From TrEMBL:
<feature type="domain" description="NAD(P)-binding">
    <location>
        <begin position="5"/>
        <end position="322"/>
    </location>
</feature>
<dbReference type="Pfam" id="PF16363">
    <property type="entry name" value="GDP_Man_Dehyd"/>
</dbReference>
<dbReference type="InterPro" id="IPR016040">
    <property type="entry name" value="NAD(P)-bd_dom"/>
</dbReference>
<protein>
    <recommendedName>
        <fullName>NAD(P)-binding domain-containing protein</fullName>
    </recommendedName>
</protein>
<dbReference type="InterPro" id="IPR036291">
    <property type="entry name" value="NAD(P)-bd_dom_sf"/>
</dbReference>
């Protein structure tokens, strides 16, 4: 059996990763998904996933130490995805972002070292961990490799609350793994997108505005560039990395996951107008919030060297699938 624990299992990545692991491990799969449903939803997609007898769901708050006795042990892989994510939260409740992300990681690591240290532990950091260095030094190489300075640009700007938890989270995992001699892996996702990604990120927001025919059409940070990695490509990269014996070494590896095609927010909107067959008459260009990073492009050569990974879903195709899902699932909150 391949017993796997996924925290944040009801969230965006957790849901798609679960589907991938069920596909790839077949009857050997035994998945335990943990979530407190504070953002992940008990929607139809997730309910259908839970109908699979290979999947067990535990509704637990990972900032509560009492939750850990429910987890059990014997996991070959632990994917720790649970966190508060989404830019709005960084500004509106930075103290909670810091408390929840850090406490849940520390408690998870304490549980893991005591109960499950034969397994392998994945921590989802973020490209936000080095975004401050891109802004502050303006000198980081682009594409950006893994070993660069991680910087909190301004401790008083709440935008960096989340980045700080990812930066310190990486250090926690590196040093726990070393001190307690267990296998671990840090990944830094770069804008994963697809169905069921919540309603706060740029592609879900564009999808909803297009579905509602919003005109004039606002575009925030129109000239900022990003890359977008379709979720099936992203979770395939995560699973391939975890299954590779090449990532069993100490010190543990940090690996970027992302696509190579840089695109501005304006170009992204234009692409979405094209694939959805609708275009507003007027575009309303807005400034990005303070601290927003102009350009981000990951160097993913390490991921490719370790796993041979290549993206399979084109941006046009991924945007079309994502838009169709959002059109059929408008935000009801
Ligand atoms: N999606 C991306 O492109 C991206 C980019 C960078 C980093 N990440 C990181 O990847 C991870 C997963 O991201 P996602 O996009 O799936 O986010 P998500 O918000 O969809 O999923 C996170 C899940 O964690 C759960 N959770 C939060 N606090 C919890 C707690 N105290 N106890 C139990 N569960 C709790 C939420 O309910 C949610 O379902 C996060 O750590 C995020 O920071 C994601």
């Amino acid at each position: 059996m391949k017993k796997v624990l996924i925290t944040g299992g009801a969230g965006f990545i957790g849901y798609h990763l679960s589907k991938r692991l069920l596909d790839i491990y077949g009857n050997d799969a035994e998945l335990v998904l943990v979530d407190n449903l504070q953002r992940g939803r008990m929607d139809d997609d997730f309910k259908n996933l839970l109908k699979d007898p290979r999947v067990k769901f535990l509704e637990l708050d990972l900032t509560d130490q009492n939750s850990y006795k429910e987890l059990g042990d014997g996991y070959e892989h632990v994917y720790h995805l649970a966190a508060i994510n989404g830019t709005r939260h960084f500004y509106e409740r930075p103290h909670e972002v810091m408390r929840i992300n850090t406490l849940s990681l520390v408690f998870m690591l304490e549980w893991f070292k005591k109960e499950n240290s034969i397994g392998k532990f994945l921590f989802t950091s973020s490209n936000e961990a080095y975004a401050g260095a891109l802004n502050f030094f303006g000198l980081l190489p682009i594409p950006t490799p893994e070993r660069v300075q991680l910087v909190v640009e301004d401790t008083y700007n709440p935008r960096w609350s989340y980045a700080a938890t990812k930066l310190v989270g990486e250090l926690f995992l590196i040093h726990y793994a070393k001190m307690y001699n267990f296998r671990g892996l840090i990944i830094r996702p770069h804008n994963f997108y697809g169905p069921r990604a919540g309603y706060d990120h740029v592609i879900p927001e564009f999808s909803q505005r297009i579905a509602k025919r919003v005109d004039p059409f606002p575009i925030y940070g129109a000239d900022e560039t990003r890359t977008y990695c379709y979720i099936s490509d992203a979770v395939r990269a995560m699973q391939s990395l975890m299954d590779s014996p090449k990532t069993d070494t100490l010190p543990i590896e940090t690996v970027h996951i992302g696509d190579f095609h840089e695109i501005t927010a304006s170009e992204l909107a234009e692409k979405m107008f094209k694939v959805t067959g609708w275009r507003p008459k007027e575009i309303d260009i807005k400034f990005a919030p303070p601290g927003s990073v102009k350009r981000r492009l990951a160097d993913v050569s390490k991921l490719q060297a370790l796993t041979g990974w290549q993206p399979e879903v084109s941006l046009d195709d991924g945007l079309k699938r994502t838009y169709e899902w959002y059109k059929a699932h408008p935000d009801k909150s």
